Amino acid sequence: MKEKNIIDSRAFQLVAPGEFEEITLQHTVKDNEVVVQPIMASICHADLRYYTGQRRKEALERKLPMALLHEGIGLVIESEDKSFEEGQRVVIIPNIPERRLKDRIEVANDSFNKRNVADNYSQGSVFLGSGYDGIGQEHLVLPVENVIPIPDDVPNEIAVLTELTSVSLHAISHVSDCINEGKVAVFGDGPVGYLTAAALHHVYDIPKDNLLVFGAIKEKLEHFDFATTHLVQDYNFRAEKDVVVVIECTGGHFSENAINQAINLIEPQGKITLMGVSEERVPLNTRDVLEKGLTMYGTSRSTAKDFQTFMKALQNNDYQRTLRKILPNQHEVIRNVNDLREAMEETIENKSWKKTVLRFDW
Fold first, then answer.
1. Residue 333, beta-bridge partner list
2. Cis peptide bond N-terminal to 65, omega within 30
3. Sheet bearing 3-16, strands edge to edge
């Protein structure tokens, strides 16, 4: 792989909790890579945990400084791959495979005894905005496989939800073989829970009567008009029947209650997918896990296939209307580090149910 050129990238790096600095990064552009200028991004809870210093001390010391953000879209600035044109809109896949970082193409199953680990679980891969400079910069240099064209009929503000929805789709893929055998339950009334439930309804055709959503805030649950909703505070989980799949989307200190309520709720030999991230260990009712013969999956990142599935699903206009409910009325324009800091602070202060969407003005 020969070197092509070096490109400067204006970057907003988080150097310490609550503190951004503008620097210039230099990226070497190589064969099979594309230069993308980010135009829109959304703030994830992971970004907020770094910004507020809620990650463990050793994690902050290891990963900072870095540019945040991993949910975003951009314009192709330069590419030798003929499948991309200059100015084309693309979704950014934040997980860069280990095989690309090593400047080589690894052939799958090249050894009979070799155990293959998917790119999104490989410890040698890197993830934008998690110990590796993310979307909060003027230019990204990415492997061609890390960008996906946005269809003409998909607006930017919908496309910016692709990364987060792709994680939901990946979580669902673990249990997709049995979601039509009974009811499916989602724990969590935030953006992740909403996008997961929306994917179950619009992509997997789970009807309202078979799609249960549990949350703690009535006003949030009112947005889930395509599902049957319940408040967790006054629900008898052991009384519900026929729930064969649960997807947990709570995280933080809510994880313990949500996971154990899911264990009470689910039928024997049911499947539970865990999506919520917690910095602390979560005690589980392992007795019922064993007695019911439950299967649990852990998932947090997605694959290019999940991104492609979402792009195809967005041809459904009803799905787009559902997704619009989680979008803000206006975007935060980011021109400098002060704008980015203010957007972070406002997101923390308002605790809005809707996503915070950033529009870059480089």
1. 359
2. yes
3. 19-30, 3-16, 66-67
What are residue 5's DSSP bridge partners? 29
pLDDT tens string 180-224: 999 999 999 999 999 999 999 999 999 999 999 999 999 999 999
Residue found under tokens 């392992």: 286
Strands 3-16 and 33-42: unpaired
Tell me the residue ranges of DSSP E strands in 119-218.
126-127, 140-143, 147-149, 183-187, 211-215
| Secondary structure of 285-332 in HEC code, one letter for each residue | CHHHHHHHCCEEEECCCCCHHHHHHHHHHCCCHHHHHHHHCCCCCCCE
237 burial type by CB count under 10 A (0-12 exposed, 13-18 middle, 19+ buried): middle
What is the reported pTM?
0.91
Terminal-residue alpha carbon distance, the chain? 30
Spatial separation of the C-alpha atoms in residues 57 and 16, rounded to whole Å: 11
pLDDT tens for each residue of 87-117: 999 999 999 988 777 653 444 444 444 677 8
CA-wise closest residue to 273 among 180, 190, 169: 169
- Rounded CA separation 223/88 (Å): 33
